[in-house]
């Protein structure tokens, strides 16, 4: 793709500038964003991401453009799954609405930093060890199984990790505005706000393990991996407030993501076999008969899976709601039926 160090520096600088702007323009003064504000900025960041993808296609070719769009769509879907966990954490810690923006902003920045580190490590491994595709593929297949059948901790705020943190740190029970620490009777305590940030940082680390191998299954270009992740995280704060109620209705999102991760896992294994160098597989020779899944098919498959999971989720929750309303109506009829 031919990305120069100067392009990397400019891209990282612009990314940092966007997050600095976000903080001073929206987050520094605590408030709960309106639906209109959230919708406008969500549309702006999504439009910017799509425009950037078109730019990659025009400048570097549509093979790279397709890789970017497939990667962006996958990372956006995984980021929405992040939002669902963030919602559970916010509820578990009873974070006041006007302070949730700050928590989300810090969590998103932590996520970008962690993913950046994973991107650098992944790029180095791919450059030097072609067999790493076997590891990434197996990891994604395992993560797909876990995503589909494991519900994880129902309350991350009271999980094992947070219980350990509470044993280590002296914790105040009350929020002190958006401060991270408070002094009581001459002793310094951490507030629940700091615990929320620690919990979200830990969750970000877990999600980075899913995210980076997944996108490296769609492109080998570290630059595309980084910008797809950056754009997926930009506007995530506004999206949280825009679709907060909708998140609970995406009941099949986990299964849809499991299908995507499994598909990319298979794609990675196919690619590993196609470039095989392991001596105990085919004598160290590539298996050229193994098909390489083209990026256009990957993009269509991922988009279709996200669409099906979303439509099926909304249909199920609507039908469940109608069924509940009917049962409530029938129950009221029985209660108010006249006696003979």
Write the layout of secondary structure elements.
Blueprint: H1 5-27, H2 35-60, H3 62-93, H4 97-128, H5 132-149, H6 160-168, E1 181-184, E2 187-190, H7 192-216, H8 222-233, H9 236-242, H10 244-247, H11 253-274, H12 295-336
Antiparallel strand pairs: 1-2
What structural keywords apply?
mainly alpha, 340 residues, 12 helices, two-stranded antiparallel ribbon, 2 strands
Protein architecture, described:
With 340 residues, this protein is an all-alpha fold. The chain is built from twelve helices and two strands. The chain has a two-stranded antiparallel ribbon with strand order 1-2. A hairpin with a 2-residue loop joins strand 1 and strand 2. Helix 4 runs parallel beside helix 7. The protein is globular. The mean pLDDT is 82.
């Amino acid at each position: 793709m031919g990305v120069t160090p100067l392009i990397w520096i400019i891209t990282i600088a612009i990314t940092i500038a966007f997050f600095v702007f976000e903080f001073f323009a929206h987050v520094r003064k605590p408030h709960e964003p309106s639906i209109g504000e959230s919708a406008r900025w969500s549309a702006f960041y999504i439009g910017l991401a799509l425009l950037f993808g078109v730019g990659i296609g025009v400048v570097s070719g549509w093979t790279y453009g397709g890789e970017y769009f497939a990667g962006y769509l996958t990372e956006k879907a995984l980021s929405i799954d992040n939002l669902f966990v963030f919602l559970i954490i916010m509820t578990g810690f009873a974070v006041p609405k006007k302070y949730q923006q700050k928590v989300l902003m810090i969590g998103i920045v932590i996520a970008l930093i962690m993913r950046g580190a994973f991107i650098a490590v992944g790029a180095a491994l791919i450059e030097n060890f072609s067999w790493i595709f076997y590891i990434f593929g197996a990891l994604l297949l395992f993560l797909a199984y876990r995503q589909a059948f494991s519900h994880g901790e129902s309350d991350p705020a009271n999980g094992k990790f947070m219980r350990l943190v509470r044993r280590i740190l002296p914790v105040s029970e009350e929020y002190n505005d958006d401060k991270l620490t408070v002094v009581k009777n001459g002793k310094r305590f951490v507030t629940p706000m700091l615990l929320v940030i620690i919990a979200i940082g830990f969750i970000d680390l877990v999600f980075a393990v899913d995210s980076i191998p997944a996108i490296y299954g769609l492109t080998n270009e570290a630059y595309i991996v980084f910008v797809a992740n950056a754009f997926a995280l930009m506007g995530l704060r506004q999206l949280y407030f825009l679709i907060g109620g909708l998140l609970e209705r995406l009941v099949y999102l986990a299964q849809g993501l499991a299908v995507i991760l499994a598909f990319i896992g298979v794609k990675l294994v196919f690619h590993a076999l196609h470039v095989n160098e392991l001596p105990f597989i085919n004598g160290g020779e590539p298996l050229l008969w193994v098909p390489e899944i083209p990026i256009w098919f990957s993009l269509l498959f991922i988009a279709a899976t996200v669409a099906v999971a979303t439509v099926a989720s909304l249909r199920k929750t609507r039908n469940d709601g109608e069924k509940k309303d009917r049962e409530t109506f029938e129950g009221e009829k029985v209660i108010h039926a006249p006696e003979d």
